[in-house]
Amino acid sequence: MTMRLTRRTALLAAAAAPIAIPQRVRAQQQYKPEYKLSVVGNRPIPLSEGAFQWADMVTQRSGGKINLKVYPGSQLVGGDQTRELVAMRQGVIDFAVFSTINISPQIREMNLFSLPWLLNDSRGFDAIINGPIGQELFATVARRDVVPAAWGENGFREISNSRRPIRTPEDMRGLKIRFAAGAIFSEIFTAMGANPVQMSFADLQPALSTGAVDGQENPINLFLAFRMDTLAQRQLTIWNYVADAGLFVVAKQVMDSFSPADRTLIMDCAKDAAKAQIAASRKGIGIGGDNSSLEELARRNVTVTTLDNEQKAAFGRVTRPVYDKWAQTVGADLVRRAEAAVRSAQS
């Protein structure tokens, strides 16, 4: 039996058929009213400032279509910055700016930045993040259902305390030093005769003010921003023992929900924010002749001890067993290639 197609039946068929919506439009309809961006700390430290800049750039350049809100102080994970990666994979966090120190317990390769006195200065750091090793580490992160967008920087970590100048490994003996995360840091300070104490950044300031710990290790920009000189931290040693790398990331499931054009926008904004973050982390510490941060330390009556290469080497010898042990954890071949890249950058 042949059915005759009339104009009326054609209209009814068309009405019953699903409406073909372009993929780009469907994607936009699925966008959430707010995307959560997590970062440890808060303004004005560069790591946190980079997160706010990234959020502002994405929100503005997308015309408000992608609305990012920053949740500083790792508040989405109760202040425990070591849980951010897990929370991102669980869907609690959409975007993040990580300190690699805080994700190194879950991603062992990130301990590369924490090998004592591997990188030495910004030239060594740049050789890692801007070269093949940086891309390799990106690929490692991507296997955790997280899309890496850009490398940032919080700065080299220096050490401060309330008791005495630190010039030699012997000066570390008996000092209670707070560290953020990672067994490698406990082993580094134990090797120097100190008493390492792990605690979150949220608990650090009260611990310093009450004397629960004698000292801490953080970049100079963070020391100044949180006025640690008012927390009895009058002795600061510049020793560049490890670098605090930053990482701009997006949860893979979230990134996949965006249109190709919006993914590109997010990545571009991350690169721009990361570039500004790196510049801010290096401001005033002598690079390019800018000593403004060092001058500010002097105005606050902080005694600054800057170690030369020979003094750093003494600390390096004491902590060498820790370095060798963790090189195996990071990956011996990866560490060898990193050492070669650093040597080349500094030659």
Compact overview of the structure:
The chain has helices spanning 7-16, 23-29, 46-61, 84-89, 100-103, 122-129, 132-142, 183-191, 201-210, 220-225, 252-256, 260-281, 292-299, 309-318, 320-330, 332-346, and strands at 35-39, 68-71, 95-99, 146-161, 176-179, 195-198, 215-218, 235-251, 303-306.
Task: Describe the structure using short key phrases.
347 residues, alpha/beta, nine-stranded mixed sheet
Report on the architecture of this protein.
It is built from 16 helices and nine strands. Helices cover 46% and strands 18% of the residues. The model is unreliable at 1-28 (pLDDT under 50). Helix 8 (183-191) links the parallel strand 5 (176-179) and strand 6 (195-198). The longest helix has 22 residues, at 260-281. Helix 3 (46-61) runs antiparallel to helix 12 and helix 6 (122-129) crosses helix 16. Strands 1, 2, 3, 4, 5, 6, 7, 8 and 9 form a nine-stranded mixed sheet that branches. It starts with 6 loop residues before the first helix and ends with a helix. The chain has 347 residues and is an alpha/beta fold.
Please write out the topology:
Layout: H1 7-16, H2 23-29, E1 35-39, H3 46-61, E2 68-71, H4 84-89, E3 95-99, H5 100-103, H6 122-129, H7 132-142, E4 146-161, E5 176-179, H8 183-191, E6 195-198, H9 201-210, E7 215-218, H10 220-225, E8 235-251, H11 252-256, H12 260-281, H13 292-299, E9 303-306, H14 309-318, H15 320-330, H16 332-346
